[in-house]
Fold each of these.
Amino acid sequence: MTFTMKSIFILLLLLLSCNTGDLNVIAEIDNEVDESSALEIVQGSNLLWTIEDAGNKNYLYGLNNKGKVKKKIKITNSKNIDWEDLTSDNSANIYIGDFGNNAKKREKFTIYKVNIDTLTTNKTTAKKIHFTTPKDVKSEDYESFFLLNNNFYIFSKNHKTSLLLKVPNKIGSHKAELITKFKLDGKSTKVTAAAISPNKKTIVLLNHDKLWKITNFLSENFFEGDIEKHDFNHSSQKEGICFKDEHTVYISDERNKANVSYIYSYQFKD
């Protein structure tokens, strides 16, 4: 058998990708999803929902436990400027955060509300929640959010000091409220996704090689609570996170050099 340099390189990449540290590989994501930028579980659905980010199609994708696309819903009244995260409410509506801003020039951001009743269709019209940032806050790149007490909490993606904004879950246009500025310890702390547990007592913020677990918070300044760093011992372009249950999260990443992306699970050891 003859091996070319290209085949040896691909083989090495595949072998390296098998070493996922403390993460458990659940499935390889369907090639139809080019850049998975979020994950969400919705009540009443047995699928894992994802989206693609900037410049890709304006679809919600429903994945089964093998990572295959089983449902695809076109959001007809939208354009994927830079879709970055998903969250959902107790009525099983799902929300798409179109607030990515790599060039830091956007002045207006949109959250699309997709009604649960449309998750069985192939296309739908979403309701829109628009927001702008406070007057004294510069335009930043936002890639993560979750819903709590009928407000969206939105995190900026920064090397050093980041922002936490609050936007009401109401159709229409709003001025976001700055809750706090925060800085996570160490390097490579850009927040790429966020989620809150079903019991609303645990928050997770995702980085490429770790997550931050926040508990015992008493106010919407979550960073006054207890913060734990959980290293994965594995680095990739991780962009999606959601809770499977109170002690386990699902995580997704974008395609690596071997052109594969995965859904992982991570279980808290405490």
Amino acid sequence: MLGEPRLLICLYGPELLHIDLKFITMSDLERHVERPLVLWSRDKGAVEEILDRADIRWPNMDPDWFKARAWIWLHYGAAKALRGELLEAISMLVFFRDQVLGPMLHRRAERQQRGVRRVEAYGLGKTGQLAATVSRHDFRSVKTGLVAAINLYLELRADEPPRSEVKGMPEALFDFLGYEAGNAARV
């Protein structure tokens, strides 16, 4: 399901409890995004020794990583919406929130870039700008969500700008959507 063959996702109950179990070998211990909790090992001392030397670092993305993808993904969503493929456009907005907007909100708060994970708990979406990117199955709603995503991306990008900008953006994307920046009535 998650593309990780070593992961066993378990649901216990009757009071439901979700547990992820990851089965790895000693050679898998040298790099992690978080320090794992070792529940069982044939040689726990050796495991702890490797973990003490391991490169444990969350894979935060830099501004150029976001820039290289943002306009392409937003254009994809806009093209799908304009063709009437609203579910596909809505799916792209979900993806964009998880891959770009959520991580950039976490970056702003100096947290690990974890998609939209716990944005409410940390107060990262308190302005409502992220919620404005959530769309219903309606062209006007999807277009409004896309415009909100563009505007929030631009605001978050200003926190830590990429080394260069994509020429003509966001104007070309606003034109593609038939939206005049600064004119909310046209959404």
Amino acid sequence: MAASTLLSPYTQLLRLARSGSPERAWSLMAQHGLLDSDSDDKALSLQARLVKDRAKRATTGAERARLFDQSAQLYAKAAGLSGASYPLINAASLSLFAGKPAQAQRFARQVLDLIESDPEEGETPYWRAATRSEALLLLDREEEARAALREAIARQPQAWEDHAATLAQFELILAEKGLGANWLDAHRPPPSVHFSGIARLAPDTRAVSEAIEHYIASERPGFAYGALAAGSDLLFAEAFIAWRDADCPAAELHVVLPLPIDQFRRLSVAAFGDHWLERFDAALAQATSATVYGLDDPELPLAVEYADLVAMGRAVRNARVLESRAGAITVVGKGESLRPQLASWRGRGRPLTIIEGVRAGETVLRSAPTHQRLQILVWARDADGPAGTPPARRDVQRHGYLGGHWSLHDDLAEAGKLAKDLADGGDGAQVAIVLAPCNPNDPSAPVLQRAAGLAAVATPGTVVADEATAMALIRAGWGGTIEELGELLLPSGREPIWSIG
């Protein structure tokens, strides 16, 4: 698996901003005294980036223009300190968004002069050519801008985060100028995909393997999320790894397991034949990351559904961050219907490729009957007395426990809305939301304690969730904000936590 590397504070902050957690990055900048610097051009550029993100989320045109202008001024100050083209080109584009086109073109001409006078100017070959492209676009020289962007991407074709930042900026410029942006689609980073399918395949898997290989060759996914069960999962993972090694070294395989590795290896790999074990170990060793999601040791089908929702959410979020798209591929038995999580994925209009496979008889993994199902626990920690429900939601049945109140729900989006209403209620309640396998109206003590632990760090107006719940909300199409807050020490260990707004 990939080894972790030590990153500079600036790189960490930039990654937080790019990954969709700008408020977390802002908080860390404030903690480190990096806001409104008079001498640190990198800190000024980061602050300007975060102000730009706030401008994009502004609800009024006046507020949007004000924030874009503030960001442009910060970038211009950074450019004055460093003499570099990166902050200067951003000052140019943000001046346009702030309603100052003449200033935007003046800065753009300065950028071109700077690049032409210094052949080595620019952080990387990509950024040098991309910066030139952006300046040309601001100066209404679109054909030259298109050619310069093609040159930039050709220089570093797998600098996907950089490409995504450029595409987002170009979309804003083109929209401000009233021009079409379809030509940008050819330059988008590769898609993120979720993979899944049946485990007990017939011995001859050639047809399924060929269909998977064809999918990978045509879609060229850069990011794959799924488990490594015997059968379909491992066939996809092996094909993806082979394609990555041959054609796309930057592609990433993210393994998302519903159970601890040893338990998953026994139940979902060895149970289908020892010949799968070596293949599982090899694929796991070559994965970019491996994460286990699961609570209270649920029945395997429920654990699989839970992990699928998380993996799908991670694919959607990654695609959103990279200005790209998310898809899914699954192998089903002949005549079988889709699992609910896949049917609802397709129901939301997301791409789903279905490959038909042949089962080798019935699966041997028959689970004992269970009354558990995936439910959403909304927890409110009382501030000055019992936390009430919003007037419009008095029908919600709530139960007291550990100094708070909880309720269970079947619909994730509806539960998220209730949690947000509670957080916005003005009574100081600390609110958390947790997706977990539960008996209806009877969550286990570990689930309740988990929710209580998350709520303990919530601030008024904000709902706190664990990563699994946050990713499932993203998959469900949550319309508000979902940002990483940091880490929290929970009974299960140190875990990322997220704010739902």
Amino acid sequence: MSCSVRSENLQSPRSIWSHPDVKTSEIVTIQPVESLIVPTALDGRMGTNRGEAGKSQLSADNDLDAVRAWLTNYADTKTTFDNYRKEAERLLLWGVAQLGKPLSSLTHEDLLVFKTFLADPQPADRWISANGGKYPRGDARWRPFNGPLSTASQRQALVILNGMFTWLVSAGYLRGNPMALLRQRAKRSAPRVTRYLSISLWDEVKAFVEQLPRETDGERAYYARGRWLTTLFYLQGMRISEVAGGQMGNFFRRLGADGRDQWWLETLGKGDKERIVPASPELIQELKRYREAMGLSALPTRADETPLILPFRGKARCLSRSAVHDAIKSVFSGAATWLRDQGPEFSDRADELERASAHWLRHTAGSHQADGGVDLRTIRDNLGHVSLNTTSLYLHTEDDERYRETTERHRMNWDGKKRPAE
């Protein structure tokens, strides 16, 4: 179904610091939780918030093992597991290294300080990776943070940690949830999506791709990838993880109610949920173009394990999420430079393109489908959203109608033809 993910070689970083209240013999090394060693005095065996003796449903007798037990609930969903582990280890490391307190002794007041810390982790050399880079967890340059967290990321961190504390209380490991005492701001209605490209700016991206040079093999390969990447993200509305992990064999065809072939793309989305997305004749034509440019047969078979995006050199293996991210950012950056060269009046549009990312294309796909009159239920199913609202859980669009609506109304239009009239 998808490309496998290789596990990282775990090594212990060398960044060491201890809180003034912690004895020299109890120095804590700032390192990932899977290789973290916590001194006995800070491991939570005697935590002031520990549950009643003999009542815990966990075999864990220290905070680190309790956190690991909580994380096992999410081991089958890599993205969720990585995010939850990241927030848990930040809090645990901050407690033992910055406060000299185990997680099971943290109080409401401690967590108020932690909220402030998330906005500006200091000292930076201890907590933030060099140059804000993303290094493997076994790399000595790894740190818990790549920089200060945005307001939205701070809020998400607290939501995850509140869930962790609630689970530890339910398991009987902790007596109470200090996170529950934090003041929760009233939930605001979801804002209108702003991180997307307008149709006119999207047309500029396509124009940039089409004017790319194609004199050398390298230039032709870059053009082919840029055209295929932008087409795939836009027409299918895929997440970057879905593109990075997808294979050409995920494309398949079946007969529609009208007796004609329909192409679909099977993908493994968020929460390991499978979905199928209509693959329009336009997309299949672009698939053929890309495959032939890369020396492959025109169409894949179901057994084809070729990645959706091929590397320029070396073995035909799946690109990492960061590599796919860099590839689409390269297109946006190039388009921004191209726009600036056209005159100062294009500088604002170029700045917007510089900020764009692969996820902007997912929002762009959804926004343009909605603007083009595609039923919101169809968009929900295409993008793999859980629901529009509670009522929409009971509404469904038949596959044949979803195929027709998506392929007729949502087009790449490399040839410049206008959308079909309403």
